[in-house]
Structures are given as C-alpha cells and as structure tokens.
C-alpha cells in the first residue's frame, strides 16, 4: 500500500514524498546500513520518561524500516511517526509503536476543507480507522487541504461537516483524527490549516476528544511564533507535536532560533501524555547522532 504525499518543500530541499521513495528504493544505503548491519549504538543513560519520544519515518530514508526500529531502540525510545499499514508488522516485530499512522489521506492539498473530496475521504478514513484500531494504534493523521480560493470560514464549515461524517466511527473504535498545522509561507503554499487559531476553532466546533491538532513547532514558528504561550493556552487541543529547526528544517540544536529544552518543558508541564516526534531533516554527516542529540535536548 503506497503512502500518500505529505507535501513538497521548495527548491532542492528533500520532501517527505522523495524521502519515502528513496527509502523504498533503498537508493541511499550507507555503508553498514546497505549491508543490513547497523553500527553499534553507544549506550546512554535511560531517558527520563516525562515525554514520550518518536521520530518521523520519512526523515530517515537511508534506513529500512527494520533498521530504523533498531536505531530508535538503541537510542532508548520505541516509536516511529507517519507509518502506514504495510510497515506495522515490522514495527510490531521490533516492539516499536506507530505513534502517528497515515495512509488514509489524499494528500496535503486535497483535504477535508474541500467538500468535493468528502466522499473519497469518508470511505478511506472509515476503512483506515478500522485498520488503526485493529492494529492497536490510536492516532491517524489528516489534513485540511488547500484554500483553493475559499474563505477560511467556508473551508472550516466544510471541514467540520466532512470530519463529522467519520468521527462517530472514530469514537466507536477509539481512534483520534489529528489534523496537522503546516506553514503556507515556505513549504506548503495555500494550505488552509496554517494558524493555530483556525485549528483550535475547528476543534471547538467539532467538540470531540477524538479530534485534535498536530502542533508542528517548526511550521508554527514560521507562521506565528509565540510557541510556548500558544502551548500554554491551547494545549488541550494539541494531541501530538513535531519538531525541526528554524530556519531550514534541520537539526534542533543551538544553530537555529528555537530553544527546544524550554519548549519541551512547557509541553511537559501541561501534563501532555502523547508523543513528541522529531521531524527534522538531518544535515550533519551522522544522522543517527543528530537524532540522539535531539532526543537528549528534548528529554526534560
């Protein structure tokens, strides 16, 4: 089963779609990884356990899903984001959780704000909700889609109507539909759910614990900033978090403008019990080292 597009990044920057294609093709195999053997991971102190950590599958195209399972277990956590049903058996074999499931979406640009897509989306999400629930998972990603000339309030009314067609089934099966907040300034032009206020209002209109937002810190820093205050005000609607450095979407260390230890303390202090997933594109020569360092920074 193919994994649908998660959007493009301008210029020559790697996209989620490109990364996933390379993962399937195995075209970026690195030395030992290409041979099916990963280098031994240095032992580290156990994680504190105040936040649950994950990593987006698409950011590690040079590793097979089995190798990425080994990597995350070696670092000390056990969850991978944006994984579809075809890879769930591998995750289960390695004791790794699918913290954000995908595969039901039509793409970033064709989402619930477009009423012309509702019949397709309802059919796909109804089927996928059952797959997620039967596998023992909880979160399933969804998207608003593009404005396509709509007034934001019109798009919100369409999204509310479309989502309510599947939410009863999601509630029955214990699955949470999570709409991602993305920036429309740099990476995803015309995407509608590009400000937290729009997403929070949609959550209030829907009024279900089985619908919420994926608060992508990278995207919202680009669109509106005020990250820690926004988390404090609206954390009840944030079911999941993503990280990446701004600008550039690379490592989250001290070469970019966000201070992730403080942000993660703010998330921790809300009592959040979901997952914080690393979604940066490693630019350093050692991507596993970059992931290890990101987990260390966020382990507050």
Search tags:
globular; 8 strands; disordered N terminus; TIM Barrel; eight-stranded parallel β-sheet; isomerase activity; alpha/beta; isomerase; 300 residues
Brief rundown of the structure:
The protein has a single domain (16-298), classed as TIM Barrel (Alpha-Beta Barrel). Helices cover 40% and strands 13% of the residues.
Outline the structure in words:
There is one protein chain. With 300 residues, this protein is α/β, with parallel strands linked by helices. The protein has one domain (16-298): Divalent-metal-dependent TIM barrel enzymes (TIM Barrel, Alpha-Beta Barrel). Helix content is 40%, strand content 13%. The protein has eleven helices and eight strands. The protein has helices at residues 16-25, 31-34, 65-75, 88-93, 118-135, 152-173, 196-206, 217-223, 227-234, 260-269, 287-298; strands at 52-56, 79-83, 97-101, 139-142, 176-180, 211-216, 238-243, 275-278. An eight-stranded parallel sheet has the order 3-2-1-8-7-6-5-4. The protein is globular and about 50 Å long.
Query: What's the shape?
Result: globular
Mean pLDDT value: 89
Widest β-sheet, arrangement of strands = 3-2-1-8-7-6-5-4
Q: What is the H/E string?
A: HHEHEHEHEHEHEHHEHEH
Low-pLDDT segments, ≥5 res: 1-43
Helices and strands, with pairings:
Layout lengths: L15 H10 L5 H4 L17 E5 L8 H11 L3 E5 L4 H6 L3 E5 L16 H18 L3 E4 L9 H22 L2 E5 L15 H11 L4 E6 H7 L3 H8 L3 E6 L16 H10 L5 E4 L8 H12 L2
Parallel strand pairs: 1-2, 1-8, 2-3, 4-5, 5-6, 6-7, 7-8
Helix pairs in contact: 5-6, 6-7, 9-10
